[in-house]
Design brief:
This protein is mainly beta and 246 residues long. Helix content is 11%, strand content 50%.
């Protein structure tokens, strides 16, 4: 019986897997792993066993949505609230920039707005008094056209239903106009301060393109008494524009 013991020991040694190999034939954990690493592995394994998976990713910052709108404006009437000019019309064309960066207010998307008007044309009677009214009245049909340019660097737009096809909006913007002669009367100035307010809808045609329909807008300009006389002008307008979203 004792003589058989060495032979049995040799058979048992042959049956055991070599060092580094598990009983299932898979490599065992290296003995050189530090205790802290082993604890981290065990803690992650515990979290995974509880259904929690830790994923480490680096998210790219979301770009701010922007729009460019090429639009034109045509006035169709005068009224006297903050100005005295009368029987004058304004035509403009230019580019508006909208940046969707101010969050929401009253359930509306708040956008920063700026505008450049390379084309402005003022249609007015040739003979007017210091307040911008036709003088004499019987010559109001004798017209002249005064060209100019404008820029409005400060403005905002409130747009509702931004994810829908039809999006109502309300906007206001202010800036400066410059004409080739004093307007709206000979006693005014070449440069005037402007304020525009508008309401309308923007119709989505695709993910990139949209159509802007201005239902009603007001265009006011005056010299703010930088000279003794401040006739100013208020005109009612309609506008049409094509927007590109990027």
């Amino acid at each position: 019986m004792l003589s058989d013991a060495p032979a049995a020991a040799l058979k048992l040694a042959d049956a055991l897997p070599p060092a580094g190999i598990g009983l299932a034939g898979e490599p065992t954990a290296l003995t050189g792993i530090s205790s802290s690493a082993a604890m981290a592995v065990s803690s992650d394994g515990a979290a995974a066993s509880e259904g929690q998976v830790r994923v480490v990713t680096q998210e790219r910052p979301k770009s701010v949505e922007q729009e460019l709108i090429v639009e034109g404006l045509v006035s169709y009437g005068n009224y006297k609230i903050f100005a005295s000019g009368y029987d004058e019309k304004l035509f403009t064309a230019g580019v508006e920039y909208d940046r969707h960066s101010w969050g929401t207010f009253l359930k509306a998307q708040m956008d920063y707005v700026a505008e450049f008007l390379p084309f402005i044309l003022l249609d007015k009677p040739r003979s007017v008094d210091i307040f911008g009214e036709p003088n004499p009245i019987k010559q109001k049909n004798i017209r002249e056209y005064v060209p100019g340019v404008g820029i409005s660097p400060i403005g905002f737009r409130m747009q509702w239903r931004s994810n829908k096809t039809i999006k109502p909006y309300l906007e206001a913007k202010g800036g400066i106009l410059a004409f080739t002669k004093k307007a709206p009367s000979p006693e005014a100035t070449y440069e005037n301060f402007s304020l525009q307010t508008a309401t309308g809808v923007q119709v989505k045609m695709s993910d990139r393109w949209g159509l802007r329909l201005g239902l009603f807008s007001d265009f006011h300009f005056s010299d703010a008494f930088i000279v003794p006389v401040n006739p100013g002008l208020d005109v009612m307008n309609a506008n049409l524009g094509l927007s590109y979203h990027f």
